[in-house]
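Feature request disguised as a bug: please show the residue count (701) next to Catalase in the output. Example input:
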Amino acid sequence: MPPHRLADQSAPAQVSASGVPFEAAAGDRDPRAQGGDHLTSPNGVRIPDTDHALKAGRRGPTLLEDFHLREKISHFDHERIPERAVHARGAGAHGVFTANGSAASITRAPVLAEKGLETPVFVRFSTVLGSRGSADTARDTRGFATKFYTKEGTWDLVGNNMPVFFIQEAIKFPDLIHAAKPSPNREIPQAQSAHDSFWDFVSLHTEATHHTLWNMSDRGIPRSYRMMEGFGVHSFRLVNQDRETVLVQFKWTPKLGVHSLTWEEAQLAMGTDPDFHRRDLADAIEAGAYPEWELGVQVFPDNEEQTYEGIDLLDSTKIVPEEMVPVQTIGTLRLTGNPTNYFAETEQVAYNTGHVVPGIEFTNDPLLQGRNFSYQDTQLTRLGGPNWTQLPINRPQVPVNDNHRDGFMQQGIPTGEAPYSPNTVDGESPQPADWDEGGYVVVPREVQGQVVREVAASFEDHFSQPAMFYASLSDVEKTHTIEAYTFELGKVYEQAIKERVLGVLANIDTELASLVAEGLGLPAPKGKPAEHLPPSPALAQVTGESFPLDGRLVAVVAGPDSDLAGIAALREALDAEGVQLKVLAPRGGKLGTGKNQQVVERTNVTARSIEFDAVVVADGAPKDGDIKATVLLQEALRQLKPFAAWGDGAEVLTTAGVSGPGVFTGKGVDDVVADLVAAMGQHRVWERADLVTASAVPPAV
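Example output, currently without the count:
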């Protein structure tokens, strides 16, 4: 039993205002805990099922009459005042989305269909679990929410950096977050899933296995928001001008490639720069290295089954591999402006999955159905009332005439005498809009079925997709995933929970389960890995592909006697690649005089490896073996970063023990620049991974 639970055994008896113990006071109830053995609604009605929403048929839409769903989510929505219950830690940016016109055949929404149309956007990236004051680089899911200010109204595409979610039904979301958030008695751990309640929940709700595996992979610690994929998670219905429909899933693909931190980098950043991701995004935009993503869609027939090749399109814990259905690019997002005021924009921006425009409709995905209620409900408390869409950052960039009146935070002065429709008092204004006038007219579809709290049988397959995901990873990514599970479960007190999780892993991959068990000092579980589709190369991050270097940082280790002309030449060469050079020296100030004079931008005291994508040692750099400089070099070696040195700078690398793949030396700058740039385009020196892993494992006794 965890030591913090022992103290609860001796908690003093509580008494009522009259001095009588609560259990003896007539009509009183112990305020410390909720009582009774059965789950109930707030008004005391016993609840038979808190995992499934009430639907019109097992695959039908969620019903508004489900009071338990509404009460449970509504209470959760209002738990944090005024901080977001989830996604509290965020960073935002302004930009523009440009459609390429290829979506015209599948949707009538101009934002996606009109070639060359530029739509203003505001994007908010975020972590999920941590509070506003938490660190950016915690292992966590990342939010990727985009507000499109379209000429038909605001469209919010509210997604994550992972295509699947923990749960299949929105009714479970409060339970998931309660399990993942800090414990209510100690308010720890902050922004971490490495604790008992989280792993207790996900091991009991095995539908969470797929998303949890994504989080334990390198996807859980992205290198930068600029190098992070985004997904709409759900299947949406698109409608074209002929009222024909298809189902689609949205994906954002970064032009800089998908890249992640190592676990060591993530931990270093938490201490040396907890604002690492926020700073990286703002600095890149300020420097003109505007981040870009391609928006793509996977397109599926809108058939009666709502499946594709046996994969359920209404199950948000599943994906359709890109090898089966390729992603079609329909536009480009470019972020070009930082917020002027964090509170007014990044903090007050509010998204709502229910905000769509004509040409985009919903499916019966039970997670999406619940989110459509939850997002609107959340803003009533967090932003102080029903007029949150009038805040400047949330305001549509089209005329609004909604007949709403008054309420907290009313920003405008409504005119007219008839806030209702139809009317004759105000000259029959406003008028409804039909299809041809751009009205949001839903394409008719049949809904029937018994009222049940059930899901389709296909929702019960919890292991074949995570097994496919793990099989698709590169060897180094598999190693990192094993290490992540070992760390997380090593922080769990209850052995029964660890053993239950290992049993889940045995349904994914035998080696994964046995190596995690070995790291925990527990027996390897028995199990039969689930059958799965062939590995999907699109799911691996280490692909051998080369990417642009816009916004990358390189440190050049230098000193008073360094080759300043060489540094100037290096700066010019890297600048042409969109890379910034930072001079790192023992002390601040300037090096040299004249046209080649260099400003010292980092010192051995202020710099750590996490900040840089590569390290170069200049000819004439100090060779006194400064421990801080040596630590930086050795960290960068373990983090698989490229190195270069010219002249006697190579001696500094040798003294620090830096050698092997990805270390380039030469007589002059020109001898190393091309190799350095090529290596940076691969994100890391992956050939070094086995050497680093082997050196980190103690020899057998």
